[in-house]
Write a structure and sequence with these properties.
Elements: H1 6-24, H2 30-40, H3 43-65, H4 78-94, H5 97-119, H6 130-148, H7 151-161, H8 166-190, H9 196-220, H10 225-245
Helix pairs in contact: 1-2, 1-3, 1-9, 2-3, 2-10, 3-8, 3-9, 4-6, 5-6, 5-7, 5-10, 6-7, 7-10
């Protein structure tokens, strides 16, 4: 921590605000946080540091959106997510920082492309794709969240494919990520990517998450469904391109 410059701390503070905004209103905004943390810290260590802030953001998201959730829609995802977490842990044990970023970026771009293709002209009742889609997105979500806390864009595409209304999208996502991020803690501790220094850094950044959550809440009242979906897709693509190119 003492080696971080003022610019580095400013980037981390901005990332913390982005976490709060992403949890409260714009799910794709956490790709900015992923990019900033990866730019300041080694990729694997940044994953552990960001995880704690995401859990703080999850608490605010549940408080704001829990009443709008479709919790039953998450049940088919659980087995696939667990498989993805195990695969992601194995990948982290061997992959370099550069490969970690690029693999996640490529996966996100593919997920966006497939989701938009499947939504085109699809019946809203079947756009989600049922068990096959839940298994595919769930496995990718578990893998990407374990490797780089990047399940937000993957699961955003799943909820968009299933045509969730904006409020239900945010409420269901809040329950999903609260569960999955808590489940990641034992994996992250075992891999050595959450350490005491990480917790101290996060303690200093928590006010940024809180500020971002309330900022996101104010933004949400100004969004309609179409604008919300466009912003989510645009933020996901931007974050994916950064991970591939960086």
């Amino acid at each position: 921590m003492t080696e971080l410059s003022g610019i580095a701390w400013a980037a981390l503070a901005l990332a913390a605000v982005a976490v709060g905004v992403s949890k409260a209103a714009l799910p794709g905004a956490n790709t900015l946080a992923i990019a900033l943390f990866a730019a300041v810290l080694p990729a694997k260590e940044s994953t552990g540091a960001l995880l704690i802030l995401l859990i703080v953001g999850d608490a605010f998201a549940l408080w704001m959106h829990r009443r709008h959730a479709r919790v039953r829609a998450l049940v088919p995802l659980i087995p696939a997510v667990l498989v993805g977490l195990v695969l992601g842990s194995a990948f982290l044990a061997f992959a370099s920082d550069a490969w970690t970023r690029r693999v996640i970026g490529i996966i996100l771009l593919l997920v966006v492309g497939v989701t938009l293709w499947r939504r085109r002209g699809a019946d809203p009742a079947t756009a989600g794709g049922g068990l096959v889609a839940a298994t595919t997105y769930g496995t990718l979500g578990g893998f990407t969240t374990m490797v780089a806390n990047a399940a937000g864009p993957v699961m955003s595409m799943y909820f968009l494919a299933a045509r969730f209304p904006m409020r239900e999208f945010l409420g269901t996502a809040a329950w999903f990520f609260a569960g999955i991020n808590l489940a990641k803690i034992p994996f992250s501790v075992g891999l050595g990517i959450i350490v005491p220094e990480t917790l101290l850094m996060d303690l200093l950044l928590v006010p940024g998450v809180v500020a971002g959550a309330f900022l996101g809440r104010s933004l949400l009242s100004r969004l309609d469904q179409r604008t919300f979906e466009r912003i989510v897709i645009a933020l996901t693509v931007a974050g994916a391109l950064y991970l591939v190119i960086a």
